[in-house]
Amino acid sequence: MRVGIYIDGYNLYYGGRGLCGRSTPGWRWLDLRSLAHGLISTHSRWENSTVETITYCTARVSGASNPAGQREQDVYLRALQRSGSVTQISYGNYVARVATAPLATAGRNGKPVISNPQWPLMVQDGAEQDVPDARFMASVARREEKGSDVNVASHLLIDILTDAVDAAVVISNDSDLSYPVTYARDQVPIGLVNPTKGYRAGKLAGEHTDGVGDHWWYQMQPSDWYEHQLPPTIAPRITKPPEW
Fold first, then answer.
1. Which of 79, 138, 211, 228 could form a disulfide with 34 if both were Cys (CB 3.0 to 4.6 A apart)?
2. Rounded CA separation 204/16 (Å)
3. Where on the phi/psi map is residue 235: left (φ > 0), alpha (ψ -120 to 50), or beta?
4. How far apart are CA 103 and CA 151, in angstroms?
5. Nearest CA to 168 among 123, 239, 216, 100?
């Protein structure tokens, strides 16, 4: 059984950061091929499976606003390619824009609660009357990663429809992948891996017997990062960042 692995790089990274800790060393130098083999052997019932292809979908960090992050990401991407930990890297891009939205705080389940004026900070009209139902509006700079989910879906469906793989593992908890994953389950067995500490996206749920059947689900744990690390040095000039 030829298995394709399709990874949303940012979903995986922020999942690891949430589970392992942003400043905690020992998890970021992740060996994706080793991880894929571990996931399949431990959580699937697929017999005689081989990893045919590993597609890592990401976007390059901008050096203008985050030069250290750009350097570290570049080292990791080169390490993945040089070590053979991935078959291909598919790039999306960052979009920088200004967003305007009401001022809010996080409520239950992280849902936004709009902030209204109240003393000692109040809004008044021209007659100096309080306007307690007014809204504070904020204009902020935003950088958004675009394209990773589309690239995951595209590579997944292209490989399935061209008979390049017999099964697939998707590492992402992005609900935008619901439609392509649902379609893919009618064609081949699918393993869906949630790399975040949050609940699995409801739209990615299903039954083991959907479509062709033999599907599985798994939520990653910190040990999945710590136990699947690249060698500290890959080739003469690619070394793991010290703080990693």
1. 228
2. 20
3. left
4. 33
5. 216
Q: Return the SS3 of 152.
A: helix
Cβ neighbours for 151, distance < 8 A, ≥ 6 positions apart:
55, 57, 90, 91, 92
Return the SS3 of 44.
coil
**E strands, 80-162, in order:** 88-91, 93-102, 104-106, 112-114, 137-146
Q: Which long-range contacts (CB under 8 A, 24 or more apart) does 38-43 make?
A: 38/224, 38/227, 38/228, 39/169, 39/191, 39/193, 39/218, 39/224, 40/3, 40/169, 40/191, 43/191, 43/216, 43/218
Residue 197 and residue 170: Cα distance in Å, rounded?
A: 16
Considering only CA atoms, which of 3, 11, 68, 67 is closest in space to residue 193?
11
Per-residue pLDDT tens over the stretch 46-102 = 999 999 999 999 998 876 777 887 888 999 999 999 999 999 999 988 776 788 889
Query: Angle at CA 233, nearest 5°, toward 232 and 237?
Result: 145
One-letter amino acid of 125: D
Contact of 99 with 134, CB cutoff 8 Å: no
Measured CA to CA, the distance from residue 77 to residue 128 in angstroms comes to 59
Backbone angles phi, psi at 239, to 5 degrees: -130, 150
